[in-house]
Amino acid sequence: MGWQVTSYIYGGHQSAPATQEDYRRVATSLDDAGGKLVAHGIAWRQAAMDLARDRASVPLCPVISGESAVPVASRSVAVTGCVASSPTTGAMASSLSSGSIGTASAMGTAGTTTHGTLPYERLIALCNENARNCDADGMQLRKMADLLVRAHSLYSEAEWKARRAFNETGQTVTKAFPGWTSLGMLGLILGGLGASWINEGKPKPSAASWVTAPFQEGYLSGIGSLISGTSFAKGLFSTDEVNQSAGKISKYSAPLKNVAQGNTLTVRRVRSTVDMVGPSTSVAESLENLRRLGEDKYKLGSGLQYATIAVQRYKREDGTNAWLVTIPGTDGHADSPFGWEQNIELMSDDPEQRKQADSSRMVVEAMRKAGIRSDEPVALIGHSQGGIVAAQIAADRADEYNISHVVTAGSPVANHPIPEKTWVTSIEMNDELVAALDGAQNPQTENWLTVRATVEPSAPQVVEDGVIIPRSNPYAAAQVPTASEGQELSHWLKYHQAAYQNASDLGSPAVEKHERHFAGVIDGKLRETLYYEGRMSY
Predict the structure, then answer these.
(1) What are the pLDDT digits (tens) for 506-528?
(2) I want to staple 224 with a disulfide (CB 3.0 to 4.6 A). Which of 48, 108, 245, 260 is the partner?
């Protein structure tokens, strides 16, 4: 069993309202037509059942049992004796006697009529075949409607508002009854762990994350509201309760972190024995480079250690420079600036606290060492903590650098005050916790596009004569490469890559526009790729 990802698109550049309404009408028509075909399939299947019941009601008929037909004297009746009197077979009999379906009588040499019966086997088979065809065509039309809805984000605004209302309700309930809601979340977690233990032989955190996914943002914003002391009235109009609580917590966690690993940051340029981060012309290629740098540097024998980022310089036709900074996520080593503790500072609502996070300091210092000027366009791409760093630099260093585009994968960045001049492309998985840690959903603006995706088991491949038959609808979902047979955390970058692939395959105008903008930022020839490593010490 493999895994596949289905994506939904929110924000970004949308079509005009009139065009959206036209698409909605087309999608509704396709869905209605599909529903009618499915209903016809049900009717055909019912007809097959009626025929089977009729046949069973006359088991002693010699013709049905395979015996010879018995001559009868009547010249005016074509179908007699063995035909059950039901509306279904009555209609069939009329059709048969008129010759529209088949012949139910044969004239003897003396003008007598020989006995006949309905061809039950053939009729039942035809009814079932028609039912299958109606089902298949109906489902195909409904899938086309779903693709149209997802490609053009036809109901994204309504879904965004509904989710906001659901999160606010969860926040209110959590703040009013923190003990009970926490027990409820614990029960869901234990249930998910228990179910995975039964199904796969061991408890899986991914299962716990999956069952709690609908409630994570509301619950976390409620806990954040309690920690930050946000009033009920203010909480209705704000979404940054988690960030406010992170600001309070980091006042204590940051000094403790400095005691544990020191506060002296050393950033130095390092060499790679292989091309870990190659040239890029698209978000998809940059995501693959990000995955390689974050996950494959040891496996490929690059010589790079943890807490390593890449800074690439592209030379444009007019002689100016453009830059792409690739930032992997948390590595968890004791002396790494990308440790777990730095996430709290990065999530603070205080910009000065965010700037002091070691991971942010490291990336900014690497950008300075690489020679990025304030007037040169920069694109940042990051996974997990790397995405938070990218959003933080765009929000808090807007006067120092020209951050033109930010790409985040699995990063809680909804409440970072990124200026409108910076385009943001965010990729998030619905069933994983990390992207929900901000307790809010991303803004829906023309310059901020979010691809949200769900994970489900993929349909088994159909093999005929050793040849794999392509799936009937390759746009419905994207396969996750090298996915585990069992359920696993979808925070891995390969899931975000599959999500972006599916969003791109849909032909969404919003995705295409963001893709063109990203490619335009780094339009040019790659001149150099610089790797920088960071370490913390006393």
Answers:
(1) 999 999 999 999 999 999 999 99
(2) 245
Environment class of 443 (CB within 10 Å of its CB; exposed 0-12, middle 13-18, buried 19+): middle
Q: Are residues 314 and 423 in the same domain?
A: yes
Same domain, 23 and 100: yes
Six-digit token string for 106: 């044969």
Spatial separation of the C-alpha atoms in residues 171 and 178, rounded to whole Å: 10
In DSSP notation, 311-374 reads EEEEE-TTS-EEEEEEE------TT-TTSSTHHHHHT-S-HHHHHHSHHHHHHHHHHHHHT--T
- Sheet of strand 525-537, all strands in order from the earlier edge strand to the far edge: 264-270, 525-537, 308-315, 321-327, 377-383, 402-409, 423-429, 448-457, 3-11, 478-479
What is the rounded CA–CA span in Å between residue 268 and residue 263?
16
Would you say the C-alpha torsion 487, 489, 490, 492 has a positive or negative sign?
A: negative
The C-alpha atoms of residue 283 and residue 451 are separated, in whole angstroms, by: 13
The string of DSSP codes covering 384-416 is THHHHHHHHHHHH-TTTSEEEEEEEES---TTS
User: How far, rounded to the nearest angstrom, does the alpha carbon of residue 30 sit from its chain's CA centroid?
Assistant: 23
Domain around 400: 264-537
The torsion of the CA quartet 316, 322, 328, 333, rounded to 10 degrees, works out to: 120
Question: Domain boundary residue among 151, 182, 198?
Answer: 151
Give Dmax (Cα) for the chain: 116
Same domain, 436 and 338: yes
pLDDT more than 70, % of the chain: 85
Place of tokens 């200026």: 419
What's the total number of domains in the chain?
Answer: 3
Q: Point out which residues pair with 406 in neighbouring strands.
A: 380, 424
Q: Is the residue at 494 inside a domain?
A: yes
pTM, 2 dp:
0.86
Could you identify the residue written with the tokens 């003008």?
111
